[in-house]
Amino acid sequence: MKISIIVCTYNRDDYISKALNSLARQTLSTSQYEIIIVNNNSTDNTDALCQIFLQEHQQLNARYFIETQQGLSYARNRGIVESSGDILVFMDDDAQADEHFLQEIRHFFETTTDATACGGRIYPDFESKRPDWMSCFLLPLTSTIDKGDNIKLFKGTQYPIGANMAFRREMFQQYGMFNPDLGRKGDSLDGSEEKDIFLKIKKEKGKIYYLPSAIVKHQVPDRRLTFDFFKRQAIGVGKSEQIRAKAISQSAYVHSVFKELVVKWGASVVTFLGYSITFRPQKGWKLLQFRYHVSKGLLSNHKIEKA
User: Fold this and answer.
1) Is 66 exposed, middle or buried (0-12, 13-18, 19+ CB in 10 A)?
2) Which residue numbers in the chain have pLDDT < 50?
3) H helices then E strands: how many in the chain?
4) Separation between Cα atoms, residue 53 and residue 24, nearest integer Å
């Protein structure tokens, strides 16, 4: 069973070398995995750093591509096409893999034959510190996930985070690849391409597991904790959900709106009250701000950009 680890990158010259070097230090034999690097039109020094990595690690089975169609989904799909592994692993360009990362994923898929996909544990690496306003409910905005020490299924609408996820290759043949209408494009903060594909798997009763031993560390620079970034990210969440739901049907969109305005707002208000009576109103208020901007994105009038 061969592993393909796909790293898509866009303007990450601050972090891309650390990400790639972590993959060069894996305990898994280099004959059992390949590294696919997809540069999505970076305008900074990312290209030069990727070339340096290739030159310095010629013992690795690493290949480098430039995807000219702008968008993370396009880059990920290019990685799928160019890869040859039985298991396709995705890691963000601002993450660093534990040295046993690929070995743990390979062992999991060999021993868990009913698994369609899995997602591992992601620890945040804050540039300064975790802000006081960031509750556990907003921590996923930093691509953080920790569901404990036991392997378990992602239940309900839960699913892995894109900084650390893996699939059997045949899954993409069965369900299709990432939707290019979804996901980040350049500096946009849109998303939902991962949600879209994981919900397709769940609809067909495919099994998606949480794998705690597959660990990456995700960089969280201070600029990601500014109010402007926070607001844009929340609006992007709502906007992307509108695109995803409308691509299914109008009734799916109505269902998403109902869930947002009734279920999620209700839960957010209750949580806000809980934080308030325990003298932590800052956490509760930030949660309501997030909910407001998600709703704004979900209900906004915007055109879907076609490639």
Assistant:
1) middle
2) 303-307
3) 10, 9
4) 9
- Nearest one of 167, 240, 229 to 198, comparing CA atoms: 167
Give the tens place of pLDDT for each residue, 42-62.
999 999 999 999 999 999 999
Question: 95: part of which helix (H) or strand (E)?
Answer: strand 95-97
Cα–Cα distance for residue pair 46/38, rounded to 1 Å? 11
Of 5, 7, 12, nearest to 32 by C-alpha is: 5
Residue with tokens 């305005």: 261
Nearest Cα neighbor of 97 from 7, 222, 32, 167 is: 7
- In angstroms, the CA 125 to CA 267 distance is 28
Handedness of CA 227, 292, 133, 14 (dihedral sign): negative
Nearest-angstrom CA–CA distance, 29 and 207: 28
Which distant-in-sequence residues (6+ apart) come within 8 Å of 203 by Cβ?
Answer: none
Q: Tokens at residue 92, please?
A: 């963000």
Q: What DSSP assignment string belongs to 153-197?
A: EPPTT----TTEEEEEHHHHHHH-S--TTSS--TT-----HHHHH
Q: Which domains does the chain have, with CATH numbers?
A: 3-225 (3.90.550.10), 227-299 (no CATH)
Quick check: 67 and 35 in contact, CB under 8 A? no
Tokens 């045949």, residue? 170
b/e sequence 219-240, b meaning 16+ C-beta within 10 Å: bbeeebbeeeebbbbbbbbbbb
Q: What is the pTM of this model?
A: 0.91
Structure confidence by residue, pLDDT tens digits, 149-188: 999 999 988 999 999 999 999 999 998 999 999 888 888 7
Give the dihedral sign, CA 165/169/172/175: negative
Please check whether residue 217 is in contact with residue 96, taking contact to mean a CB–CB distance below 8 angstroms: yes
Q: pLDDT above 90 covers what percent of the chain? A: 89
